Amino acid sequence: MPLDELRTAYRLIGENYRVGDDGSVWSNHRNTRAATAVVDGWHMIVGGSDKDGYRKVIICEGGKRQYWRVNVLVLTMHL
Q1: Which of 9, 10, 49, 76 is deepest in the core (most CB within 10 A)?
Q2: Strands 17-20 and 25-31
Q3: CA 25 to chain centre
């Protein structure tokens, strides 16, 4: 396990996502053409930027997409 992971506090969002207090957003599944597959381990979600330049990610739970600014997601999960 990398040393950075030992210092970062994570909060789970459902079963498939976690948010670090360092602003990292992780997922343990990947979309494939056939279906969503659970993978072995976590991978970081890169996301993109919204119109105001804030980093955003898409969190899919229950078949619904939710668009989140990462700064809001971190505050919501860690306060």
Answers
A1: 10
A2: antiparallel
A3: 3
Residue 25: C-alpha distances to residues 33, 49, 67 (Å)? 23, 14, 13
| Ordered strands of the 10-13 beta sheet | 10-13, 17-20, 25-31, 36-44
Is residue 70 very low, low, confident or very high in pLDDT (cuts 50, 70, 90)? very high
Handedness of CA 35, 68, 56, 72 (dihedral sign): negative
User: How high does pLDDT run on average in the chain?
Assistant: 84
End-to-end CA distance of the chain: give it in Å, rounded.
Answer: 26
Q: Which amino acid is at 46?
A: V
What average pLDDT does range 47-63 have in this prediction? 91
Amino acid identity at 50 = D
Helices (H), the chain: 3-7, 70-78
1 has pLDDT over 60: no
